[in-house]
Amino acid sequence: MKNNIWFLVACALFFVAGYSLNNSAISFPRYKVAVVDISKILENSQEIKTLKISQEKQMKEINTLVSKAQNELANEKDPTKIAQLEAKYRKEIETKRNSMDEEYNTKIAKITEDIKKMVTQEANKTDYNLVLPTGMVISGGEDITPKVIKDMK
Questions:
Q1: Across the strands, what pairs with 143?
Q2: 111 with 51: CB under 8 angstroms?
Q3: How far apart are CA 27 and CA 19, in angstroms?
Q4: Other C-beta atoms lying within 10 Å of the C-beta of residue 131
Q5: Which residue, of 7, 44, 95, 117, has the greatest Cβ tally within 10 A?
Q6: pLDDT digit string, tens, across residues 120-145
Q7: Rounded to the nearest 10 degrees, what angle do helices 145-152 and 79-125 cross at?
Q8: Low-confidence winner among 5-9, 22-26, 64-68, 98-102 (lowest mean pLDDT)
């Protein structure tokens, strides 16, 4: 009989403890969620616009070099000189393209990092716990994109 009473007391204590933990878990603050449209931020980024102009200029240089190579190869009759010119121009074009790609990747990484910092600063300023891209959210969250764009300028 004593064992049954102790068992009932222990069950009651576990029930009360579990119920108390459940109440405290429910009372924790909910997440405050923001959404941000990365593509809109990129469209309005002056750094991205400058990078695009730079890329177009470098592509024009490469296209000019390709045209020059084609003209020289078309005018050359000696097969050994043609092979040498092809190798020379191929190496030069590849070097320019690799340099352009490396510069582009470095600048994109920096721009992405700057955007992440601005989004984080805006989220911290307005006490958001979570920021998601708009493409991942079906419903809910406050759009902070205009604030981030304003901070960029």
A1: 35
A2: yes
A3: 13
A4: 20
A5: 44
A6: 998 888 888 888 888 888 888 888 98
A7: 110
A8: 22-26
At 25 the pLDDT is 47
Of residues 63 and 79, the one with the higher pLDDT is: 63
Q: What is the mean pLDDT of the chain?
A: 83
pLDDT for 82-111, tens place per residue?
Answer: 888 888 888 998 999 999 999 999 999 999
- Give, in degrees to the nearest 5, the angle at Cα 49 between 62 and 98: 30
| End-to-end Cα separation, the chain, in angstroms | 78
Secondary element (H or E) of residue 97: helix 79-125
Q: How far apart are CA 39 and CA 107, in angstroms?
A: 17
For the record, the structure tokens of 43 come out as 């469209």
The neighbouring-strand residues paired with 153 are: none
Residue partners of 92: CB distance under 8 A and separation at least 6: 65
- Sign of the CA dihedral with 141 first, then 145, 151, and 152 last: positive
Indicate the burial class of 85 (C-beta count within 10 angstroms; 0-12, 13-18, 19 or more). Answer: middle
Give the C-alpha separation, 32 to 17, whole Å: 29
Query: Does the CA dihedral 98-104-107-109 come out positive or negative?
Result: negative
